[in-house]
Amino acid sequence: MFKYRGKSSKDFHLKIGEGRALYSAEQDITFEEVAGIDGELAIDNQRLKSVPLPIPCELVLPPDKSIDTATQEIVGWLRGEVGWHDLELGTDPKYVRRAMHYEQYDVEKVFKQYGRSVLNFKCKPVKYLKSALQPIVITKGQQLNNTENTVAKPLMVVTGSGNITINIGKSKLSLVGVDKGIIVDSQSKSVTSLDGQRPLWSQMIDLGGWPEINKGVQKIDWTGNVTGISMIQRLGAKV
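and the corresponding structure tokens:
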């Protein structure tokens, strides 16, 4: 069983088939040939590539369900709003992936003809602990434990005013002229007002240094007039 866009494959009478191919995240590396140099130069693009996730499915219909209706419902589910959506696998229940369905062929026709098909998804290279996607209230001196194998890129909501410096282990965030509060999202690389409507780039000093939660135990501390910090940690593992 898997869930996509908030609905379960069981809702569409799909049974997961055998032989699902497994892929893992790989580093994005560009190889360039240079005259006079044996082999290629490897250029690390400092990111992970997206990961394909093919899910073989068999359509198992109840007697009162027509295949035409069932396949139309499946296509409507998969072809909904274009973009990245949560995908959960029953075989990996602690984690949620960000995924997008894409068709390499006409799924509706294949289901009608064979009663089975492979649903192709593309996933972001990091899967997230469900328990680390809920906002938590941070206290000064608190220790955060990143138990996963990637550096986490949190979303922080900071309330306070003036000049503020926040340290998470060796990671440092410097803010100036804060008025009431600010939202800093290390994943989307955005800095906005508390209502999320106004960019506040001028209040972040070092745009190259986004707050991160490195692997292991990291202490969070700050200076300045901070009245509160909440955080979505986004602890995740490579797919």
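(Above: one complete record from the training split.) The helical segments are 67-78, 107-114.
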